[in-house]
Amino acid sequence: MVILVIGVGFLLLVIAITAIDTQSNGFFSQERIGQYGKPFLIYKLQTLHSKTNKTSFLGRMLRKTKLDEIPQIFNLLKGEMTLVGPRPDISGYADNLAGADQIILKLKPGITGLASLKYRNEEQLLAQQTNPQHYNDEVIWPDKVRINKWYAENRTISMDLQILFYTLVPIPFDVETFMGKR
Question: In whole angstroms, what separates CA 173 from the centre of its chain?
Answer without folding.
Answer: 17
